[in-house]
Write a structure and sequence with these properties.
single chain; 166 residues; alpha+beta; five-stranded mixed sheet; four-stranded antiparallel sheet; 21% helix
Protein backbone atom coordinates (compact mmCIF):
# COMPACT_ATOMS: atom_id res chain seq x y z
CA UNK A 1 0.00 0.00 0.00
CA UNK A 2 2.83 2.40 0.87
CA UNK A 3 4.53 1.55 -2.44
CA UNK A 4 1.34 2.51 -4.28
CA UNK A 5 1.26 5.93 -2.57
CA UNK A 6 4.95 6.44 -3.36
CA UNK A 7 4.41 5.53 -7.03
CA UNK A 8 1.39 7.83 -7.29
CA UNK A 9 3.38 10.60 -5.58
CA UNK A 10 6.37 10.13 -7.93
CA UNK A 11 4.07 10.15 -10.98
CA UNK A 12 2.39 13.36 -9.79
CA UNK A 13 5.78 14.95 -9.11
CA UNK A 14 7.08 14.02 -12.57
CA UNK A 15 3.95 15.40 -14.20
CA UNK A 16 4.33 18.68 -12.30
CA UNK A 17 8.05 18.99 -13.11
CA UNK A 18 7.54 18.24 -16.80
CA UNK A 19 4.67 20.78 -16.99
CA UNK A 20 6.90 23.43 -15.45
CA UNK A 21 9.84 22.81 -17.76
CA UNK A 22 8.02 22.57 -21.08
CA UNK A 23 6.35 25.58 -22.67
CA UNK A 24 2.58 25.60 -22.40
CA UNK A 25 2.31 26.66 -26.03
CA UNK A 26 4.55 26.58 -29.08
CA UNK A 27 6.66 29.67 -29.37
CA UNK A 28 9.13 30.32 -32.18
CA UNK A 29 7.53 31.82 -35.27
CA UNK A 30 3.99 31.93 -33.90
CA UNK A 31 2.00 34.97 -34.95
CA UNK A 32 4.59 36.77 -37.06
CA UNK A 33 5.46 36.40 -40.73
CA UNK A 34 7.95 38.12 -42.99
CA UNK A 35 6.47 40.42 -45.60
CA UNK A 36 5.55 43.85 -46.88
CA UNK A 37 2.07 45.35 -46.87
CA UNK A 38 0.73 48.57 -48.38
CA UNK A 39 -2.44 50.41 -47.34
CA UNK A 40 -3.64 52.11 -50.50
CA UNK A 41 -6.01 55.08 -50.17
CA UNK A 42 -7.80 55.66 -53.48
CA UNK A 43 -8.79 59.31 -53.02
CA UNK A 44 -8.11 61.22 -56.23
CA UNK A 45 -8.21 58.20 -58.55
CA UNK A 46 -10.84 57.10 -61.01
CA UNK A 47 -12.67 53.84 -60.44
CA UNK A 48 -9.99 51.21 -59.87
CA UNK A 49 -12.34 48.29 -59.15
CA UNK A 50 -11.01 45.34 -61.12
CA UNK A 51 -7.63 46.99 -61.69
CA UNK A 52 -4.64 44.69 -61.40
CA UNK A 53 -1.93 45.35 -58.87
CA UNK A 54 1.61 44.15 -58.46
CA UNK A 55 3.56 44.61 -55.21
CA UNK A 56 7.23 43.64 -55.43
CA UNK A 57 10.14 43.53 -52.98
CA UNK A 58 13.31 41.47 -52.54
CA UNK A 59 12.85 39.68 -55.88
CA UNK A 60 9.30 38.48 -55.04
CA UNK A 61 5.97 39.81 -56.31
CA UNK A 62 2.31 39.51 -55.33
CA UNK A 63 -0.32 40.11 -57.98
CA UNK A 64 -4.04 40.47 -57.71
CA UNK A 65 -7.14 42.44 -58.54
CA UNK A 66 -8.48 45.40 -56.58
CA UNK A 67 -11.99 45.29 -55.17
CA UNK A 68 -14.43 48.21 -54.98
CA UNK A 69 -13.19 49.88 -51.77
CA UNK A 70 -12.00 53.31 -50.67
CA UNK A 71 -8.95 51.79 -48.99
CA UNK A 72 -7.22 48.52 -49.77
CA UNK A 73 -4.41 46.59 -48.15
CA UNK A 74 -2.19 44.49 -50.39
CA UNK A 75 0.33 42.04 -48.96
CA UNK A 76 3.49 40.34 -50.14
CA UNK A 77 4.76 37.42 -48.11
CA UNK A 78 8.53 37.04 -47.94
CA UNK A 79 10.69 34.08 -46.88
CA UNK A 80 11.67 33.84 -43.20
CA UNK A 81 15.34 34.29 -44.09
CA UNK A 82 14.75 37.55 -46.02
CA UNK A 83 17.55 40.12 -45.99
CA UNK A 84 16.28 43.01 -43.83
CA UNK A 85 18.67 45.62 -45.29
CA UNK A 86 17.48 48.45 -47.54
CA UNK A 87 15.76 47.40 -50.74
CA UNK A 88 13.17 48.67 -53.20
CA UNK A 89 9.44 48.13 -52.73
CA UNK A 90 7.38 48.81 -55.87
CA UNK A 91 3.61 49.14 -56.29
CA UNK A 92 2.00 49.16 -59.73
CA UNK A 93 -1.72 49.48 -60.42
CA UNK A 94 -3.08 49.08 -63.93
CA UNK A 95 -6.76 49.92 -64.59
CA UNK A 96 -8.95 47.17 -66.01
CA UNK A 97 -8.65 47.13 -69.82
CA UNK A 98 -5.47 49.22 -69.86
CA UNK A 99 -1.93 48.13 -70.69
CA UNK A 100 -0.14 50.92 -68.87
CA UNK A 101 -0.11 51.45 -65.10
CA UNK A 102 -1.91 54.44 -63.61
CA UNK A 103 0.27 54.05 -60.51
CA UNK A 104 3.92 53.06 -60.61
CA UNK A 105 5.60 54.01 -57.35
CA UNK A 106 8.64 52.74 -55.51
CA UNK A 107 10.62 53.53 -52.40
CA UNK A 108 13.67 52.20 -50.60
CA UNK A 109 12.88 50.56 -47.25
CA UNK A 110 14.59 48.58 -44.53
CA UNK A 111 12.55 45.78 -43.02
CA UNK A 112 11.98 45.84 -39.27
CA UNK A 113 12.15 42.87 -36.93
CA UNK A 114 9.00 41.72 -35.17
CA UNK A 115 9.53 39.42 -32.21
CA UNK A 116 7.16 36.55 -31.53
CA UNK A 117 7.72 37.05 -27.80
CA UNK A 118 10.05 34.07 -27.59
CA UNK A 119 13.28 33.46 -29.49
CA UNK A 120 11.88 33.82 -32.99
CA UNK A 121 10.50 36.55 -35.18
CA UNK A 122 10.20 37.88 -38.70
CA UNK A 123 11.09 40.90 -40.81
CA UNK A 124 8.34 43.07 -42.23
CA UNK A 125 7.35 46.60 -43.13
CA UNK A 126 4.06 48.43 -43.48
CA UNK A 127 3.74 51.22 -46.03
CA UNK A 128 1.03 53.55 -47.27
CA UNK A 129 0.19 54.90 -50.70
CA UNK A 130 -1.75 58.08 -51.41
CA UNK A 131 -1.96 60.15 -54.57
CA UNK A 132 -0.53 63.16 -52.75
CA UNK A 133 2.18 61.42 -50.69
CA UNK A 134 3.14 58.51 -52.93
CA UNK A 135 4.54 55.30 -51.46
CA UNK A 136 5.89 55.93 -47.97
CA UNK A 137 6.79 54.23 -44.71
CA UNK A 138 5.26 57.15 -42.80
CA UNK A 139 1.58 56.26 -42.54
CA UNK A 140 -0.43 59.52 -42.89
CA UNK A 141 -3.24 60.11 -40.36
CA UNK A 142 -5.77 60.12 -43.23
CA UNK A 143 -4.78 56.55 -44.14
CA UNK A 144 -4.96 55.38 -40.53
CA UNK A 145 -8.41 56.97 -40.11
CA UNK A 146 -9.68 55.44 -43.38
CA UNK A 147 -8.37 52.00 -42.39
CA UNK A 148 -10.05 52.20 -38.95
CA UNK A 149 -13.32 53.18 -40.61
CA UNK A 150 -12.97 50.31 -43.08
CA UNK A 151 -12.46 47.84 -40.21
CA UNK A 152 -15.50 49.23 -38.36
CA UNK A 153 -17.62 48.77 -41.48
CA UNK A 154 -16.41 45.19 -41.88
CA UNK A 155 -17.21 44.43 -38.24
CA UNK A 156 -20.66 46.06 -38.25
CA UNK A 157 -23.64 43.90 -39.16
CA UNK A 158 -25.29 44.70 -42.47
CA UNK A 159 -27.84 47.50 -42.11
CA UNK A 160 -29.48 46.95 -45.48
CA UNK A 161 -33.26 46.72 -45.20
CA UNK A 162 -34.67 43.36 -46.14
CA UNK A 163 -37.67 43.39 -48.43
CA UNK A 164 -40.39 40.86 -47.88
CA UNK A 165 -41.79 39.22 -50.95
CA UNK A 166 -45.57 38.72 -51.17
Amino acid sequence: MIRLFVLVGVAALLTTVSACTSPSQPCAGVGVTSGVSVMFLRDGYSDLAGASYELCARGKCAKGELQQEDITRVNLGLPDDVDPDHGTVRLRVTPKGSTSPEIDASTDVKLTRQSDGCDGGAYSRGLAFTKKGGLTTKIPPSVTAAWRQHLKELAAPSTGAATASP
